[in-house]
Amino acid sequence: MPNSDLPKYVYEQRIKKKSGRIYTYYRFRRNGKSVGLPGSPGTPEFHAAYSKMLEGTTANQGRYLTGTIAHTVQAYITSPEFLQLAPSTQKNYKMHLFRVDKAFGDWDMNDITRGLVMKMRDKKADTPVGANHLVIALSQLFKYAVAREICDSNPTTGIPKLKSKGAGNRMWTDDEIASFRDSAPAMMRLAMEIGLYTGQRISDVRRLLWADYDGSAVKLRQQKTGTPLVIPIHRDLKPHLDGAKKIGPTILTSKTGLPFHERVFFANFKAALQESGVEGVTFHGLRHTAASKLAEVGCTTEEIQAITGHKSLKLVEHYTKGASQKTLADAAILKFEGTGKAQKC
Fold it and tell me: pTM above the 0.70 mark?
């Protein structure tokens, strides 16, 4: 049965039944001859070859022309810039870019205006984080295209981010931490303690192996940034790790003894939050909490960065804005007076 999703004049043929390999061909209408096309439909190679085949015909070349949204998206997601991104970032960008491709795939990149990007962002205003991620994904697409002279400018430049309606990934209060400790299941509490005392993202906490822990520190390479870290274990975290059951290779495991799938972990963590009566916080908020607490005891931004692994000091400063002003002021005066009693990390 012909594949109705294929573009005009294109057909597929399985050459060797045993191998199962399918080849794609373009059939010329003027003489009925066929020419093989490289790649698979949707790839940059296929787009380029198909566009050339269409030259001299009356067919609508549309999304297969170089310089269109569809062609550029396909080229970008196979580019070195894109492939160097973390898998989670790639997945997020693809989700947004494929939606834009579906709506405007046959548009020229230069036809996407700042006003249109604003409309796309505003359409997702009910989910500010998603709206902001859409703009970021488009920004990277246009940055790629401008560098290769596919289009003239980046229409996302200067578009402001939408503010989150809720508290976002705010830091946890001491009371919220205590409540969670009192009622959370053992595995969820262990996850919380690791997040609180290492300041790491859940993507890295979920992947921690027992082999990464030597009794005094954990070694890891951050999934998002590729940053290698060696983090000394806080004295209050050590008993939780040393007392935990080693069910599988990862420190955190599901009931089946396997590493947590992202969705399963968040479902369990959400249930634990509800059971403890803690509202308005997220696991990522523990990263904020760790950075803030480090700031409160007088750690420098460089020292905090050595724990959290942030790429820039500006990001560290963003997280430490939640540090207690009074605690920092007390530490500053003690240092100013030369008492030497200010707390150290």
Answer: no
